[in-house]
Amino acid sequence: KLSNTTCKIFSFQDYKSSPDPIFEISAECLQPSPVPIIIDNGSFQTRAGWACKGNELGAPRLLFKSVAARSRGAARSETQIGNDISNLEPVRWLLKSQFDRNVVVNFEIQELMFDYIFSHLGVVTEGSVEHPIVLTEAPCNPLHSRQMMSELLFECYRVPHVSYGVDCLYSLYYNNALSNLTHQNTGIVLSSGYHCSHILPVINGRLDAGNCKRVNVGGSQAASYLQRLLQLKYPGHLAAVTLSRMEELLHEHSYTATDYHQELEKWRSVEFYEQEVHRMQLPFSAKGLGGVVSVEERQERRTQQLRRLQEINARRREEKLQQDQERLDKLLTVQELLEDGYLEQFHKNLVQLNMDSAEELQSYINKLSLVVEQGRQRLLQASEMEQPMDEGDGVTEMDPDFSEENTETEKPVQPVFNMAEYHQLFVGTERLRVSEILFQPSLIGEDQMGMMETLQYVLAGYTPEQQEALARNVFLTGGNLQYPGMKERIERELLAMRPFQSHFQVMMASRPAVDAWYGARDWALEHPPGGAGWISRQDYEEKGGEYLSEHCASNVFIPMKIAKPVPRLLVKHHWPHYWDVGTSPFLTDVLL
Fold first, then answer.
1. pLDDT in tens, 359-391
2. Alpha-carbon distance 4 to 418, whole Å?
3. What is the rounded distance in angstroms from the CA atom of residue 559 to the CA atom of residue 425?
4. Sheet holding 278-281, edge to edge
5. Any idea what DSSP says for residue 183?
6. Coil, strand or helix at 451
7. 104/144 Cα distance (integer angstroms)
8. Rounded Cα–Cα distance for residues 170 and 591 (Å)
9. Alpha-carbon span 18 to 21, nearest angstrom
10. Which of 102, 101, 131, 90 is nearest to 114 (CA)?
11. pTM (two decimals)
12. Could you report the per-residue pLDDT of 455-467, keeping only the tens digit for each?
C-alpha cells in the first residue's frame, strides 16, 4: 500500500471571474480606415478583438462565457454578461444563452452580447458602428439564423460590412499558414465544441457542405455526465459537485484512453489505482475534529461537568437565600411599626402585603425564618463537600464504570475519523469515461454514431482517391478535443478504419480553443472589406439577409428543392373513386 505522501491530492480552484475592463480605442484601430472587429461567437466562450498585428492588439481583448443573467422583472440595463458574473453557481437558474445547441436563436441575448463587446472595446454605438464585423457561425447555419443576424447588424448597429465564416475552418486557415501550407488543400476537419461535434470535409480548399455531419455530443454533455457519475458515487456531497467544478475536472484532470477497454483493465489493479487516482479535496470546516479520547480525559470532563453543576446549584441557593432574607427583613420592619405604635402605617403596609391581621404576619415571619435557617445550613453542608469532590472520590462513587480495570481495557479503542479524507472525491475511471462519450455516445443514452463512426460514414461517400486525399490531412480543433491522448486515440481509430498500408496524417491545432479567432483575424488582414467574402449594406438591401458572400472559410450555399404542398381539391364529380389530389396517381399530373 502506498504512503500518503505519494497520493495525488488536488484542490478545486473555484475560479472567480473579474469584470472586463473598458478599453479605450487606439488610433491604430481608426486610421487610415476603421479596423474590422473579429468576434468568435462560440456557444461556450465569446472572443472579441481587433484585426491588427502585434502582441497587444493582435490578441483577443475580451474572453468571456456566452451567458447572461437577469432577474425576472429587472431592467435591461441590470443584465449581467459573461465575466460580470463572478460565480455562476448561485445564479445558474437565471443563466440564458443566445444558442440552441450551436445555432443562434435568441437574438435579444445576442444583442446584449454585441452591446457588451462594443462598449468594452471602446466603440461608440450611437448612430452607427463604423467598423466592419467578422463573425463566426455554425457549419451549415440555417438561413433564418443568418437572416436575423444580418438584420441585427445592419439595421440595429448599421455596420458597413459583415463577413461570416465557420470557426473550425478559420482554425484550419490559421494552422495551414503556420505550417506554410497552401490554403487550397483537401482534408477533413474534426471539431468538437461545447454542445456538439462536426465532421467537415474540405475539397480543394472549399467546404463540402453536402457531406458535413454533426454529432450531438460536446463539452456540456461531458460535464453533465461527470456530474451524474460523481453524485451517484458521493450522495453525501451532492451540493459540492457543481457544473463549474466538473468543467474544471474536464479541463485539468481528464484524458482520453488509446484503448478504452484495455485502460479500464489497468484500473482494476490496486497499485495502478492508488497511483493514478486524483483525490479532489473539498472545502470543509475543521471545527469539532478530534482523534481518540482516552478514558482519563473522559473522566476529567465528567468531573468538570459535575463541578459546574455544583457551582450553578450553589449560586442558585445563595440567590434564593438572599431573596428570602430580604423579604424577612421587610416583614420584620412592618412588625416593628406595630410595636412602636404606628398603627396607620402598619395597616397600610399590611394591605400592601395582602395580609389581614398581625397574627397572619407573625405566622409568615416564623415560616420564612425557618426557610432562611435551612438555606444557610445547606450552604454550609455544600461547602464542606467541595474538598472531597475536588479529589475525585465523588465521581468514582457516582460512576462505577470508571474503574481502574475498565481504564486499562478501554485504552486501545476507536480508530481516528479522518474528516479531511471524508471530504475528498476520488476521481478514478471517471477521468477517461467522460471523453469516451465522443466515441461511444451510448454511454449517456444518445442513440447515434460516435465521432469516428461518423467519420467513416463520411469518407465512404467519396471515391478511393478522394478518401486517400482526405485521410492525409485530418485536422483536430475545438475546445473539447484538448484532452491528453486525443490525437493518439484518433490515429489508432484511423489505423483500424483505413485499408492496409494506406497513409493518413492527424494534426492537432496549436491552440484548439482560440485558433478560430486568430484565423479570422488573419483572413481579415489578407482580405480587406469590400472584396470577396464581405457583405456590404447595399448587398444586404438588394439581396436580403440570407445572402452569403462565400470565401475559403465560409459556409457554402446549397440550392435545395423544397416540395410545395399540393392543394387538396375535391374532384368527386369527375372521378368518384378519388376525393383529392393526394390519393390519385394520375390526377396530379393532369391538374398541374
1. 888 888 888 888 888 888 888 877 776 554 444
2. 13
3. 53
4. 8-11, 278-281, 424-427
5. S
6. helix
7. 10
8. 50
9. 9
10. 131
11. 0.74
12. 999 999 999 999 9
